[in-house]
Amino acid sequence: MSASLVERSTSFGEQLRAWGLNPTTLVFSIVIALALYLTYQRATAISVSNIPGPEPESFLLGNLPEIFQSQVGVPDFKYQQLYGDVVRIKGPFGEDRLMISDPKALQYIFHTAGYGFLKWPERTEISRILMGRGLLWADGETHRRQRKVMLPGFGAPESKAFVPIFRRVGTELTAQWSDILASSPDQTTILNVASWLSRATMDSIGEAAFDYQFGALSNTDNEFMKAYFGLMSDTLGSPPRSAIFMQTILPVWMLQLMSKYSRARNLVHARHTARLANAVTKQLVESKAEALLQGKGNKDILSLLVKANASEQSSTRLTEEEMLAQMRTILLAGHETSATSLCWVLLELARHPDVQDKLRKEIRETEMSIHARGDSDFSASDLDNMPYLSAVIKESMRFHPAVYQNYRLAAHDDVLPLSKPINTTDGKVITKLPIPKGMKIILSIAAYNRNTEIFGEDAHIFNPERWFRDSGEKRGPTLGVHGNLLTFAGGVRTCIGWRFALYEMLALTVEIINNFELFPTPDIDRLRREACLVMLPTLEGEQLKGENLPLRFPEYENPANMLSHCHLASRSFRRFRYPVIPHACPAFLCYATRSYATRLSSNTRPSNQGSHKSGSLWSEESWDQVFLDLDKSLPPPRASGPLFSQPRRQTMTERESKVLTGMLDMIFDSKEAREDLGDGNSEMPGGIVRGQVDDLFSRLRRFSRRPRREVDSSTRMFDKKKEEMSFCTTDQQLLEWALREVFDESKRYEEAARKAMVEASGTGEKTELPHLQSPIYSQLIAHLMRTFRVHFRDPNLALFIFNHAQKLSTVSYVFGCSTAAYNELVETRWLAFNDIQGVLAAIEEMTLNGVPFDSRTRKVVDTIRRELGSREILTGSDEVVQSESWEILTKIEKLLAPKLHTRRKNFLQWKAEVVGVDDNETFDDWAFDDLEKLTVGGSGRLN
User: Fold this and answer.
1) What is the number of other CB atoms lying within 10 angstroms of the CB of residue 653?
2) Are residues 804 and 927 in the same domain?
3) For this UniProt entry, which residues form the secretion signal (predicted)?
């Protein structure tokens, strides 16, 4: 074999020489030609390497680990802040990619270009594994064909028709929560609302989309639900670097082989779920097709889809595989995104009790109007006409987009328009961005939804009030279908079920907030925005357990042994149209008490003949038994749980109050009682059981919640700023936030004040001038210093914050470097650096500038004295070092010593001169009390 190869190569070389060509020269020429060709290609190819962007973590994976392993939005917001709305990122082996949140570029990609930007191949494969070859997998003409068949099931009228189903599921959900609370010993509980909402949305999808009862809420052992719960977090959550590398580098056919045969836990879970889903959906499709042939088609989405598919031409119909894939897509994408979005809505309502109370007030007022017109429940139009509810849902979808990124691939060379010019790294300014064919782009929905030019300067704060002012709906190019948000994407790839999801969220939010008050729990501090294709709530260190959002439900004020009766009575009491929750309405408590007393009695209300038998509802014995049971069951008075929220000033609406009065009159009014018993009867003077009812409520009143203090606007403002700080996971992020949100704001305040002063001096009118600084500026400076020192253990940045505030301007120094900030400076100097000389300089600075000391300043000095006394912090045993430290401490204590009143100072001087230095307490008391007699004309000069 080798001999033949040698002979062939020799003959080939001889042939080249016969043609007058040298083999070595030929090879060399080919190499030069290839090099020239590659150089020409690189010189003429479109490049984005001059776009600003972060340095890659590694050459092998670029910036992808940070993007795919971080919490949702953390890299997006950082890149947006540092480099702008168009960022060059690195893929594997130094490949250039883009992350885009520029509004005009996004509008071009989503709307103008249409299918000119394809999905990443590796992302389509993930969609195929989870949902099959359905709408989220398809692209181009296949996507257009599938979407055309599915559209009839997701129109506006069809989505509105499902509202009663959503309301029914919401009622079942709240009833189960009420049962849990009823069985809780202290009438309070913590629930993983993520799990419950996932089950509720699964039941909604089953009934509305398939006319099928999954029973996820009622059957916790549901195998189908178990398979779907945690699927996203298990399959896609926190991918290791090896998974990122394989998804990015391997060709699609190899990924398909891995998904089919790999024994990895996440892929086994995905295959098991796919088998279950295919079995259920195949049976459903067959039954709907048979019903259609018999003319018995329903109005659920699957029936409409089967009907639409049957009416299409054979070339445009969905295949059986595609039909099953659409069902799996609706199941997973439909229930997971809605449940996740609802989780973030409830989280923000728990974090913002003022928003929760305002929303509940709107819900109750709408409910009253519904009952006034004779209807029994919320309709789609009622949900549409609740502006604050709409604002809360929009703001939550903006702040926490369930789908946070889209992934696109340029199908050909293109040019992206830009909202703002880009300063390239080579010094150029460009207003349009050319991109080459094959360029991979990450469309950052999370970053766009917090674009300050679209949604205001406070875009990084949860604030539903923004939707009542000039918001993003009216700014910038048109992008999203709802509120100009990109949460539902846009253009040809707009989420086909966005109306369905929206009405589902509206209906369930109304039912939950109308019946419960939500509070955060300590575990919320460990909450992660997990990137799992959708943004799931998980707890730090417990990501493998799946989505988890623990919220606390409030303690009921009702007696423990009455709560179950209250819950049972709620069914019949619904005709009065009060909230189900007993503590939300005193009238319901009264009704439940009456029902409870009825259970103790074997008789009913006395007849008109005036019979008043012992043991009846109205007898002393029955009511004494009620009071006895109440006294035995009531827990000792105690404060309510942590005060996370402001109190509701009124828990009853005007109509509820009127019905309560009418009910009390109907049951207990003396006039009606006398009419029933007859004029001659004198057994009930002063009204039937009026005294007993007064006694009952006076006893219950002892266990009401204590009034909570009001929170002023500056406190709320400071709380919002602290909440923003909590989202910064590194010291660098917090520093960037401080420079942007604190110090830049300080400059704006000062500039506005100076401008107003100039305008006021020009007009000569007396006008109220704006603040020179934010009212919480000094609090922010101190809190930032403490956060850097204690939380991030970076005392140098704490000192930087103080120095920056000091040097920014005179106004910043005066207003920002307050006692609290100086206390942080003193603690940092001593606790972090053992710098007693720095402590002295800070104390002298406070004295010179008239900044008052407080107890915290003196505590630091006491700490210094203790540690100096132990000699543990000294750098050595040198007596000179020790003596110098004690001298400095003495100076500090003298500066901190309280200043003597002039009268006292003069008295001590006189005592030293006249009486002597010996202490004489009796003389001191007498002399100092009569010091006025010893002074001349109150001048302070001793006689």
Assistant:
1) 17
2) no
3) none
Per-residue CA distances from 713 to 719, 817, 821 (Å): 10, 22, 22
Beta strands in 695-805 (DSSP E): none
Q: What is the separation of C-alpha 897 from the centre of its chain, rounded to a whole number of angstroms? A: 48
Q: What are phi and psi of 271, to 5 degrees?
A: -65, -40
Half-sphere exposure of 639 (CA within 13 A, CB side): 5
pLDDT band at 238 (very low <50, low <70, confident <90, very high): confident
Higher pLDDT, 26 or 680: 26
Count CB neighbours of 904 within 10 A: 12
Task: Check the annotation: does 343 bind a ligand.
Answer: no
- Which band of pLDDT confidence, cut at 50, 70 and 90, is reported for residue 679? very low
pLDDT at 306 over 70: yes
Report yes or no: 840 and 891 within 8 Å, Cβ to Cβ: yes
- Kindly state whether residue 345 falls inside one of the protein's structural domains: no
Alpha-carbon distance 728 to 74, whole Å?
Answer: 8
Percentage of the chain lying above the pLDDT 90 cut: 22
Identify the H or E element spanning 663: helix 654-668
707 confidence band (pLDDT: 50, 70, 90): very low
* pLDDT band (50, 70, 90) for residue 93: confident
Higher confidence at residue 456 or residue 651?
456
Do 692 and 773 have their domain in common? Answer: no
pLDDT digits (tens, 9 = 90+) for 442-491: 999 999 999 999 998 889 999 999 998 865 555 778 888 888 899 998 88
* Residue 602 confidence (pLDDT): 37
Residue 160 included in any domain: no
Residue 675 forms part of a structural domain: yes
Tokens 């007696």 sit on residue: 559
Q: Which residue has the tokens 């799996």?
A: 328
CA distance 85 to 77: 10
Please tell me the predicted confidence (pLDDT) of residue 550. Answer: 92
Sign of CA dihedral 271, 276, 277, 281: positive
What's the CA gap between 39 and 42, in Å, rounded?
5
* 643 SS3 class: coil
What's the token pair of residue 351?
């974090």
Q: Are 414 and 435 in contact (CB under 8 A)?
A: yes
Structure-token pair, residue 248? 């990015």
| pLDDT tens string 740-765 | 889 988 888 888 887 877 777 766 56
Torsion angles phi and psi, residue 97, rounded to 5: -135, 175
- Helix (H/G/I), strand (E/B), else coil: 807: helix
Which structural domain, as residue segments, surrounds residue 822? 713-896
Angle between helices 241-249 and 252-261 (to 10 degrees): 130
Least-confidence region, from 27-36, 184-193, 197-206, 573-582: 573-582
Are 816 and 746 contacting, i.e. CB atoms less than 8 angstroms apart?
Answer: yes
The three state secondary structure string of 530-581 is EEECEEEEEECCCHHHCCCCEEEECCCCCCHHHHHHHHHHHHHHHHHCCCCC
User: How many distinct structural domains can be found in the chain?
Assistant: 4
Q: What letter would DSSP give residue 62?
A: B
Token output for 360: 């509940």
- In terms of Cα–Cα distance, which of 94, 580, 546 is closest to 343? 546
CB 170 within 8 A of CB 204: no
